[in-house]
Amino acid sequence: MTSAVISVRGQGGANDEAGRIQALELAWNHALEGKDSKALDMLLGNNMVSVDIDGSVSNKSEFLASIKAPDYQPSQAVIEQSNVQMYGNAAVVVGVFRVKGMEKGKPYVHRERFVDTWIKANGTWQCVATTGTLITAKQPAD
């Protein structure tokens, strides 16, 4: 089991809200592992935009379709570290995410730096933007 480093910024109620955001991030990981597009649908805002590690951009329906694709088979999704910054009814989460599984018949392990933007509207938090950048091992200079 991997330990996660999680930090929150804010005072009083802001810490409670940051804790809610952390719980939603965890629910997102569980939904990915289970390919549960219905759970993800509830976590994502209708106008959500996703920028993937390859630079491609997708909207909510495209993102959900990619999770349901038969070629996408995640077996583990873990946040290794994250930090939540609260801004009233908005929150920004910056962290490191690791996912492993099979894609198009080949095993993979990706570590990504991610930034998720959450907005609270009508009492409900939803992610409206997510971006991931692949963390690659640095090569020594010649």
3D architecture notes:
The longest helix is centred in the first third of the chain and has 21 residues. This protein has a 7-stranded mixed beta sheet. The chain starts with a strand and ends in an 8-residue tail after the last strand. The protein is globular. Helix 1 packs antiparallel against helix 2. The protein contains 3 helices and 7 strands; from the N terminus they run E-H-H-E-E-H-E-E-E-E. It is α/β, with parallel strands linked by helices.
Strand order of the largest sheet: 1-4-5-6-7-2-3
Count the E strands: 7
Approximately what portion of the residues adopt beta-strand conformation? over 45%
Mean pLDDT: 88
Q: Helical proportion?
A: 25-40%
**Dominant shape:** globular
- Uncertain parts: 1-12
Please state the structural category. Answer: alpha/beta
* Gap from first CA to last CA: 37 Å
Rg over alpha carbons: 15 Å
Provide a count of the helices. Answer: 3
User: What string gives the helices and strands in order?
Assistant: EHHEEHEEEE
Largest sheet: 7 strands, mixed
Short overview:
This protein is of the alpha/beta class and 142 residues long.
SSE topology:
Layout: E1 5-8, H1 13-33, H2 37-43, E2 44-51, E3 57-59, H3 60-68, E4 72-87, E5 90-103, E6 106-121, E7 124-134
Parallel strand pairs: 1-4, 2-7
Antiparallel strand pairs: 2-3, 4-5, 5-6, 6-7
Helix pairs in contact: 1-2
